[in-house]
Design goal:
Blueprint: H1 9-12, H2 16-31, E1 34-38, E2 41-43, H3 47-50, H4 58-71, E3 74-82, E4 88-94, E5 99-103, E6 111-115, E7 118-119, E8 125-129, H5 143-146, H6 148-166, E9 173-176, H7 184-198, E10 213-216, H8 221-224, H9 226-240, H10 260-287, E11 293-296, H11 299-302, H12 306-318, H13 324-330
Antiparallel strand pairs: 1-2, 1-11, 3-4, 3-8, 5-6, 6-7, 9-10
Helix pairs in contact: 2-4, 6-9, 12-13
Length: 377
């Protein structure tokens, strides 16, 4: 096979480890709901943060934006509807490969975005960049562009392994006979008899002429190192996407005594956090009024198991750090029990209403009520 095997983001996605990294980072990001904050106060979630594109799922929008950010270095969306106050009500994700960016280096604000041959209104474009191209700073640099040669090498290793398995396989054994006058016809007949007797799952004794040699064959040492090369490639891809090699299933230290919480914490802090911060900054400026920020809910990923979360919630509630409603939310429960909208009133004896007295002392109080009889007896 001649030429490069990886030349763009689409061809890079065919590498399984790349697909794994994209699924991890995009999946982590879309699991975290987006909230609106003013200072330290969390506001009711605007519809725009729950579902940026009304015609698509919110998780779908976030994952595609993250994948474009990683592969192309640019996540681009456009405002499709605005409210009376001018702030966006809906946005649409645009495939980064379809957007062409032009720029006047003498004017930083002179940037033009063309999508499928149509020039977009500059104020409606929302552009999240991964770093900056030093020769074209208005655009970001994706993983594929940054590590193109390494990705091409990984794809070439996979192609070579496939060709070795399909067209370069070696026989399982070589049988050397003591006869010096062995004809091809006799050799083919002996091979057919050997396959008929030993080709299946039957283990029978082999009786051969004196001097016959049976030599097991295997791959060459170079071909035998393909598995090791593949394992090293998993580490390379993990490094490209700023992941611990554990997440790409690369060989490493044993995780037998390591719980899930530290792994998720490391993942969020070292791999996901640098990524979502770029989105939070750009989307806050483009989507919400000044002083209000978009923030991904990180505790969705850092939440412990139920027993540990309950213990921590009880401790924080007992120390007065959180309210009962906040403690319930921490362990995944509604702020109040189902069917209970407000605390039940305290109906003690001192607050109980006194029984009403009839205006007519001769009124009938019912059977056995002690009323005065009108018979006079």
């Amino acid at each position: 096979m001649g030429g490069s095997l990886v030349w763009d983001a689409t061809s890079a996605r065919r590498i399984p480890a790349v697909g794994r990294a994209l699924a991890l980072l995009g999946g982590f990001a879309k699991q975290m709901p987006m909230d609106a904050y003013r200072g330290y106060q969390r506001l009711p979630q605007p519809r725009l943060l729950a579902r940026p594109d009304p015609n698509r799922g919110g998780g779908w929008f976030v994952q595609n934006s993250v994948e474009d950010y990683l592969l192309y270095g640019n996540a681009i969306s456009v405002v499709t509807a605005r409210g009376a106050d001018g702030w966006p009500l809906a946005v649409q994700w645009l495939p980064a490969s379809w957007v062409y960016i032009s720029w006047n280096p003498w004017d930083e604000q002179d940037v033009t975005y063309n999508y499928a041959g149509v020039t977009l209104k500059f104020d409606d474009v929302i552009h999240v960049r991964r770093g900056a191209d030093r020769n074209f700073p208005v655009r970001g640099v994706g993983v594929v562009e940054e590590y193109l040669s390494s990705l091409d090498r990984i794809a070439a290793e996979e192609a070579y392994e496939a060709s070795a398995l399909v067209g370069g396989a070696v026989p399982s054994v070589a049988i050397i006979t003591p006869s010096l006058t062995l004809t091809q016809e006799v050799a083919d007949e002996a091979k057919a008899n050997w396959l008929a007797k030993f080709g299946g799952p039957i283990r029978e004794p082999a009786i051969l002429p004196n001097g016959t040699q049976v030599i097991p064959l295997a791959w060459s040492p170079t071909d035998a190192q393909l598995e090791q090369a593949r394992q090293m490639s998993l580490i390379d891809v993990a490094n490209m996407f700023n992941l611990n090699s554990y997440w790409t299933n690369a060989p490493g230290a044993s995780m037998t005594y390591r719980t899930a919480a530290p792994l998720y914490q490391e993942m969020v802090r070292t791999s996901v956090e640098p990524l979502i911060v770029d989105f939070e900054d750009v989307w806050s400026d483009a989507w919400l009024p000044r002083g209000t920020n978009v923030r991904f809910r990180r505790d969705q990923l850092l939440r412990e198991d139920l027993a540990t979360s309950t213990t921590a919630s009880v401790a924080s509630y007992g120390a007065g750090i959180t309210t009962l409603a906040e403690a319930r939310v921490t362990i995944g429960l509604p702020p109040t029990p189902a069917g209970e909208l407000a605390p039940a009133p305290d109906m003690n004896a001192s607050q109980a209403p006194e029984p009403s007295q009839p205006d007519d002392p001769n009124a009938d109080l019912g059977p056995g009520g002690g009323g005065v009889s009108d018979t006079g007896t």
